[in-house]
Design brief:
- The protein is about 30% helix and about 15% strand.
- With about 550 residues, the protein is an alpha/beta fold.
- The strands form 5 sheets. Strands 1, 2, 3, 4, 5, 6, 17 and 18 form an 8-stranded mixed beta sheet that branches. The protein has a 5-stranded parallel beta sheet with strand order 7-16-8-9-12, with helices on one face.
- A hairpin with a 4-residue loop joins strand 14 (about 365) and strand 15 (about 370-375).
- The protein folds into 2 domains: about 5-150 and about 385-535, FAD/NAD(P)-binding domain, CATH 3.50.50; about 150-180 and about 190-205 and about 335-380, 3-Layer(bba) Sandwich (FAD/NAD(P)-binding domain), CATH 3.50.50.60.
- The longest helix has 21 residues, at about 440-460.
- Bound molecules: 3-acetylpyridine adenine dinucleotide.
- 3-acetylpyridine adenine dinucleotide binds near residues 189, 382 and 383.
- 3-acetylpyridine adenine dinucleotide (N01) binds next to helix 5.
Length: about 550
């Protein structure tokens, strides 16, 4: 690094979304540490600061998409919708920042560009794009799993004369689609949420679809006040159920196999789940949809029939029917009027799987067969370089100057998804190898913040300077994650979970698929065994291995 650090801190936290805000509160207010948070945006909110596209909202029900660390906050905040919409989540996070006075040690408009471990001082030296140079004992990342936008490098992309936007970097002032010819590339969560809303005002909307999707109706609407009151009476119990669940949501897990009931019973269960909407279709219908291909086929076929029923033009319906991957092998989608939108006169579906985009030119998008679609606006709903993309943009160097991006060149290696061998005192909130994106994020974020805070308390109470994952424990964890993933549907699709959306990215399943309950138990066992799989030491003495 260019020069010596000018400030010595206990901890540096990257990001001021759910993860960074909670970590700031836990380390600064509950532990009394000297903490500096750096945030790239000019406000708090993380994902919800950047993703302001039309229709943006969360797929977790609102009463579960919040912090649980403060009971008064839980009781006092009133959600208005069944699912929380982006502006409301952003208001919530701003409220949390105000309520706990969290902004005073957040430096906004600042990206951390480098973090180097200094072997001699046993501290992290951190540099930002604003010229800050600080050192810290602990480095905690809350940089999000989906925070590096993927704007595909399509030939001629930058020659387009109209306006173009990525859903994950949406202009704060909004975009006026009235009467415009709009093209949306991408039909993942962001596309499926924004397409029906854009169609309402656009002159004409053309959707460029590479992979058809299974999506379940959200059944979004105002939240029932009586329901919320009941939730608040039982919040502790409900939250605890979510903590022990698979997906971080307090739904009753289905116990029956889809294969042990009659066809009529099965259809009735799916019909009921479809009418209830949301993730209950996946978690609440049958126990083996994600695990058994034959069981999965019944769910996939049910959704295909629904698409054919909703979409009036049979040719368009067939283009929308997913046949190349099983339901839930990609991130399950939740929608409002998605398939119905293709019945509108001002909406055209273009299948770019069979007739790919050849180029973007000044007036629009040209396909390989020569067809030209003239456009005023292009929306890239093309996703993110997930889980590792944002880490790789920072020059993170561990012991001996090893670069994290080199260590992860063939896929991310972590112990518990929270730490990396060779990178002492670095803690990643919802890092690769943890449940993260396969769960309701606030539940996973809180579990990580609590676990990391516990580890730091342990170090401070025992006069320890260094905590580092053991290399063998890391290998075993990565093997365990891969072994679990191999038993699921996840391996049967080209998804961002596997890095398949980014050309050249290694095909490795990144999140932990064993569920938040099992994962929490494992983390608690590690703690109870004296931080098994970690080396703990003072900087003066050799490290003590606590690994097996
Ligand atoms: O991104 P995606 P997203 N040419 O990667 C297509 C979370 N999230 O922003 O499937 C043409 O899912 C790509 O096609 P294919 C959630 O975890 C949550 O929608 O790769 N097309 C796909 O259709 C989610 O999973 C919420 O063949 C290209 C689309 O673009 C994650 O964020 C809301 C292409 C990308 O879909 C990411 O969702 C929003 C190319 N070169 C997001 N490259 C809620 O909670 C990509 N595509 C509601």
């Amino acid at each position: 690094m260019a020069s010596s650090p000018t400030r010595e801190l206990d901890a540096v936290v990257l990001g001021a979304g759910f993860a960074g805000l909670h970590t700031n509160y836990a380390l600064r207010d509950q532990m009394g540490l000297d903490v500096q948070v750096y945030e790239a945006g000019d406000g708090v909110g993380g994902t919800w600061y950047w993703n302001r596209y039309p229709g943006a909202r969360c797929d977790s029900e609102s009463y579960m998409y919040c912090f649980s660390f403060n009971k008064e906050l839980m009781q006092q905040w009133e959600w208005s919708g069944k699912y929380p919409e982006q502006p409301e989540i952003l208001r919530y996070l701003n409220h949390v920042a105000d309520r706990f006075d969290l902004r005073r040690n957040i430096q906004f408009n600042t990206r951390v560009t480098a973090a180097h471990w200094n072997d001699e001082t046993a501290r992290w030296e951190i540099e930002t794009d604003q010229g800050d140079r600080v050192s810290a004992k602990y480095l905690i990342t809350g940089i999000g799993c989906l925070s590096s936008a993927n704007v595909p490098n399509i030939t001629g992309r930058d020659t387009f004369a109209g306006q173009s936007y990525h859903t994950g970097a949406w202009p704060h002032e909004g975009v006026d689609f009235s009467g415009k010819r709009v093209g949306v590339i991408g039909t993942g969560s962001s596309g499926v949420q924004s397409i029906p809303v854009i169609a309402q005002t656009a002159g004409h909307l053309t959707v460029f679809q590479r992979t058809p999707q299974y999506t379940i109706p959200a059944r979004h609407g105002n939240v029932d006040k009586a329901f919320l009151d009941e939730v608040k009476k039982n919040y502790d119990e409900i939250y605890e159920k979510a903590r022990q669940s698979t997906g971080g949501l307090p739904y009753d897990a289905a116990e029956r196999s889809a294969l042990e009931v009659t066809d009529e019973e099965r259809t009735a269960v799916y019909e009921d789940a479809w009418n209830q909407g949301g993730f209950k279709f996946l978690f609440g219908s049958f126990s083996d949809i994600s695990l058994d291909r034959r069981a999965n086929d019944t769910a996939s076929e049910f959704i295909r029939a629904k698409i054919r029923e909703i979409v009036k033009d049979p040719d368009v319906a067939e283009k929308l029917v997913p046949v190349d991957h099983p339901f839930s092998s990609k991130r399950p989608l939740i929608d409002t009027n998605y398939f119905d939108t293709y019945n509108r006169d001002n909406v055209t579906l273009v299948d770019i799987r069979h007739n790919p985009i050849a180029e973007i030119n000044p007036t629009g998008i040209k396909l390989e067969d020569g067809a030209q679609h003239d456009l005023d606006i292009i929306v890239f709903a093309t996703g993110f370089d997930a889980m590792t993309g944002t880490f790789n943009k920072i020059d993170i160097q561990g012991k001996g100057g090893e670069k994290l991006r080199d260590k992860w060149a063939a896929g991310p290696l972590t112990y518990l998804g929270v730490s990396v061998a060779g990178y002492p005192n670095l803690f990643m909130i919802t890092g690769p190898g943890s449940p993260s994106v396969l769960s309701n994020m606030p539940v996973s974020i809180e579990q990580h913040v609590e676990w990391i805070t516990g580890a730091i308390k342990h170090m401070e109470a025992n006069g320890l300077d260094v905590m580092e994952a053991d290399a063998q424990a890391e290998v075993e964890w990565v093997d365990h994650v891969n072994e679990l993933a191999s038993q699921t549907m996840f391996m049967l699709a080209d998804s961002w979970y596997l890095g398949a959306n980014i050309p050249g990215k290694p095909r490795v399943f990144m999140p932990y698929p064993g569920g938040v309950g099992a994962y929490r138990e494992k983390c608690d066992e590690v703690t109870a065994a004296g931080y098994e799989g970690f080396h703990l030491s003072t900087s003066q003495e050799p490290a003590t291995a606590t690994a097996d």
